[in-house]
């Protein structure tokens, strides 16, 4: 499980990064691709949430469970706030943030044993009552979320012939 998870994290990261090849700074930073978000905005969004997921993994071992998301801090509040925080950041800073955040998550997963990846914890997302393993958390919440935005960017690239 561990080696497969790490391979998926790396492949998912590389797939996202390869989508940027051949795109201009203007295409990356000014053209809406995901709703009103540019590719830069979407990558910043993924980076923010991966930092939260990294915290959830850490909290799972330090506190026995990830910190539940606050009902007053929904994604409808967090997403615009974090987009505004990153609005004036250069593309290079956004890309570096993503690469560094994903690297930290990969290193965290590499440092866990198979048994630790199987630790079952409550799902921390709003209104969720399910449980999953830490490995499943990383796969669904990090890789799955990034995959969602990869598909959106691919769809845009296909539509514009890029």
Secondary-structure map with pairings?
Layout: H1 2-18, H2 25-29, H3 39-62, H4 75-86, H5 91-110, H6 114-117, E1 120-122, E2 131-133, H7 134-160
Count of all domains = 1
Specify the CATH class. Answer: Mainly Alpha
Gyration radius, in Å: 16 Å
Output the number of helix runs. Answer: 7
Could you name the CATH topology?
Four Helix Bundle (Hemerythrin (Met), subunit A)
Overall pLDDT confidence: 95
Distance between the termini: 36 Å
The name of the CATH superfamily reads dinb family like domain
Shape estimate = globular
Strands in their spatial order, largest beta sheet: 1-2
For the report, how would you describe the main beta sheet?
A: 2 strands, antiparallel
- Residue share in β-strands: under 5%
Q: What is the H/E string? A: HHHHHHEEH
Question: Your description of this structure?
Answer:
- The chain has one domain: dinb family like domain (Four Helix Bundle (Hemerythrin (Met), subunit A)), CATH 1.20.120.
- It is built from 7 helices and 2 strands.
- Helix 1 runs antiparallel to helix 5, helix 3 packs across helix 4 and helix 3 packs parallel to helix 5.
- The N and C termini lie far apart (36 Å).
- The model has no long low-confidence stretch (mean pLDDT 95).
Annotation keywords:
162 residues, mainly alpha, Four Helix Bundle (Hemerythrin (Met), subunit A), two-stranded antiparallel sheet, 2 strands
């Amino acid at each position: 499980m561990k080696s497969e998870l790490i391979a998926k994290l790396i492949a998912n990261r590389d797939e996202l990064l390869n989508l940027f090849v051949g795109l201009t700074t203007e295409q990356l930073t000014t053209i809406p691709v995901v709703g009103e978000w540019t590719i830069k905005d979407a990558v910043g969004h993924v980076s923010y949430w991966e930092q939260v997921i990294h915290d959830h993994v850490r909290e799972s071992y330090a506190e026995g469970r990830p910190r539940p998301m606050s009902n007053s801090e929904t994604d409808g509040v967090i997403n615009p706030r974090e987009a505004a925080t990153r609005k004036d950041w250069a593309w290079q800073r956004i890309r570096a943030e993503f690469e560094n955040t994903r690297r930290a998550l990969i290193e965290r997963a590499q440092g866990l044993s198979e048994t630790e990846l199987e630790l079952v914890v409550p799902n921390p997302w709003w209104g969720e009552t399910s449980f999953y393993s830490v490995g499943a958390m990383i796969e669904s919440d990090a890789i799955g979320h990034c995959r969602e935005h990869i598909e959106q960017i691919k769809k845009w690239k296909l539509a514009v012939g890029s």
